[in-house]
Amino acid sequence: MTRPARFLAAILMAVLIAGAPASARTIVDSAGRTVELPDTVSRVFAAGPPASILVYALKPEALLGWPRALRGEERPYIAEAYRDLPETGRLTGRGGEANLERVLALKPDLIIDFGSVRDTYADLADRVQAQTGIPYILINGRFDETAGSLRLVGEALGVAERGEALARDVEETFAALDAALGAVPEAERPRVYLARGPDGLETGMKGSINTEIIERAGGRNVAEAPGQYGLVQASPEQVILADPDTIITWDPTFFEAVWSSPVWSGITAVRQRRVYLSPTAPFGWIDRPPSLNRMMGLKWLAGLFYPELWTKDLREETRAFYRLWYHVELSDADLDTLLQWANGRAP
Amino acid sequence: MTPQRSGLAVALLVAALPLLALAALLIGPFPLSPGEALSVLWRGATGTLAEGDRAATVLLSIRLPRVAAALLVGAALAAAGACYQTLFRNPLVSPDILGVSAGAGLGAVLGIFLSLPVAAIQLMGFAGGLAAVALVGFVAAAVRTGDRTLVLVLAGVVVGALTGAATSLLKVLADPYDQLPAITFWLLGSLAGIKTEDVLPVAPVVLAGLVPLVLLRWRINVLSLGDEEARSLGIEAGRLRLAVICCATLVTASAVAIAGVVGWVGLVIPHVARMLVGPGFGLLLPVAALLGAAYMLVVDTLARTVAAAEVPLGILTAVVGAPFFLWLLARGRRAWA
Is B254 within 8 Å of B89 (Cβ atoms)? Predict the structure, then answer.
């Protein structure tokens, strides 16, 4: 063979070898992209914190690392085998710091992102997939789509039964909530403000992914304006005007400060001491990040919003949730920490 | 411009400022009529304010500190801008020329990154601003060759770029769901969360910087002529320059510490002042300070009224300031000199 011919043959061989397992199966992700997957997926790179929680819940042994290494107080709430997975960084968006070479070095069978499925993200996924040759699927992170997303990823990871079981749990929780709260008229639902940031003045407008848990748990988000979504800055004046009867936060700094501040003192939620601090171990119960962790927050919020209608025991619910979703059997001490945290005593 | 017209401009400003402040106290999403405001003041004066009185909270605990902070921040930024423009004899200079804003930004972002309380974040912002300018001064003093002013400005550019890079690094490392939005909002500037406890410690510091500048304004005017001329008039240019830089840095760092990074005010307002009263620094400085205070008051009132959520100050000042600056350039009249 001449040299060019040999070169072409080598390329042809490479293409054939590389292409052989790719014919295995295809999947349509939440963005409507058709992606070819290998038969068995045993190594998954999570593009961001929401995706890492999704993969951890469904198939922890496939997770290649955490986008951000676990902090000390989070460690007891993750099964021991996965506490020390390496830090991989984020891949999503412009702020992503994961290096594509490092992604390749981890040899993932699949990259998963969980959250927005808008065109920008679909395009980014296509580009990374074309550049690395690693299949990349986008999963819808909207709260109401959770069950479908779990089934889809269960399928993709080859753990369809686990996906089905978790999806059922989601559907049962949603149905139980709707059954318990269904009769409460709109006007009698609690008016809720989500306080983010050290001064509590950052919030999510109604319809933003950060606050959809409020409506799902039967509350009304007081930060509402037609056509405005996402995180915004509010002023205390606006909070006074909206006068929420319930405030939820996960910022211990704000939670400490709110009780003694003259500015916040006139707000109904503060006067009635209905300001609640969410635990954030291993992940935030109401947001941070907006992922499957919200299923735990939902049970907590329902009990806070409707103590007469949602009478389940938080202790038992928490224990069962961490067992089913996070693969940990909580010790009484660790469970106590979480419940005290939810009562405003952050560790 | 004739002295009469300059005098008229100053008189109008001094008269308009309290009226603007009163208007700002009454405007906002929480409806508050003048009658209610008076009643709140009466109840406050007679000590009969009820616990949890919402109108009183809005007027006394939210808008009053906000108005005071807007006046302070606007005056501080505009005065510092006027000083630096005269000092460096360059119309494109703004108060952050020596890296104050960049340093304050880094300090505050570090505070948010470490999850510190708001007061500590403000203190770190203040300290960061001072530290950046101190570093610039140190570098400029170490470089013994060339034009002193040019070295100072270049050192400011370098330190500003380095602190900016450090800020970006912290943004990359910050928790994207928790700290990053807080950092972003802080870097755009806002007076939304200002409390009386934030304004009280800052006001004396701003005044401590502004008063010497006002007292020294006629001497500073001589600096715009150049060092040789200053010396021939018996003014020690080096020490005066140091004093001006220290004072301007102090007021800018204080302003940024409580309001976040608010651009364009210190660049544009001195130009408007110069259009009104001419380039003489003796009159320019007080007019710039008054104008800056009035401008900030208007911008902050807009920030809390134009949309359902607060609009960051940095966005409003840029949207208003940048086209206005272009218009100034296009008019082609020599506003400078």
Answer: no
0.80 exceeded by pTM? yes
The sheet with strand A44-46 has its strands ordered as A44-46, A110-115, A136-140
Chain B partners of A95 at a C-beta cutoff of 8 Å?
171-172, 176, 180
Q: Which residue of A has its CA nearest to B168?
A: A95
- The answer to whether residues B141 and B159 touch, using CB atoms and an 8 Å cutoff, is no
Among A58, A157, A50, CA closest to A109 = A157
d(CA A88, CA A36): 24
Contact A196 B181 (CB under 8 A): yes
Q: Are strands A191-195 and A246-249 parallel, antiparallel or unpaired?
A: parallel
Say if CB A55 and CB A99 are below 8 A apart: no
Task: Report residue A140 CA to chain centroid gap.
Answer: 11
Residues of chain B in contact with residue A284, where contact means CB-CB under 8 angstroms, are 177
- Pairwise CB contact (< 8 Å): B193 & A241: no
Chain A residues with CB-CB distance to B178 below 8 A:
196, 250-251, 288
Question: In the predicted model, what is the mean pLDDT of chain B?
Answer: 91
Start-to-end CA distance of chain A, whole Å, equals 72
- Cα–Cα distance measured from residue B224 to residue B239, given in angstroms and rounded to the nearest whole number: 15
CA angle A73, A64, A280 (to 5 degrees): 25
Cβ of A49 under 8 Å from any chain B Cβ?
yes
> In whole angstroms, what is the distance from residue A69 CA to residue A47 CA?
14
Half-sphere exposure of B234 (CA within 13 A, CB side): 1
> Are the CB atoms for B59 and B40 separated by under 8 Å?
yes
Q: What percent of chain A has pLDDT over 70?
A: 91
ipTM score for this prediction:
0.89
Beta bridge partners of B256: none
What is the rounded (10 degree) CA torsion for B75, B80, B82, B86?
Answer: 160
* 8-state DSSP, B51: T
DSSP code string of B177-222:
TTHHHHHHHHHH---TT--HHHHHHHHHHHHHHHHHHHHTHHHHHH
Tokens for A190, please give them. Answer: 């609690």
CA distance, residue A234 to nearest chain B CA (Å): 5
Q: Name the pLDDT band for B337 (thresholds 50, 70, 90).
A: very low
A196 has a chain B CB within 8 A of its CB = yes
3-state helix vs strand vs coil in chain A, percent to 5: 45, 15, 40
Q: Which of B298, B179, B133 is nearest to A251 (CA)?
A: B179
Contact B177 A228 (CB under 8 A): no
What is the rounded radius of gyration, in angstroms, for the C-alpha atoms of chain A?
A: 22
Q: Does A315 touch chain B if contact means CB atoms closer than 8 Å? A: no
Q: What is the per-residue DSSP string for B312-336?
A: PHHHHHHHHHHHHHHHHHHH-----
Q: Do the chains contact at B307 and A290, CB–CB below 8 Å?
A: no
Closest CA to B284 of B222, B217, B215: B217
Task: Classify residue B139 by its DSSP letter.
Answer: H
State whether B182 and A68 contact (CB < 8 Å).
Answer: no
pLDDT in tens, A102-161: 889 999 999 999 998 999 899 989 999 998 999 999 999 999 999 999 999 999 999 999
Helices then strands (H, E): number in chain A? 13, 11
Burial label for B158, CB within 10 Å (0-12, 13-18, 19+), is: middle
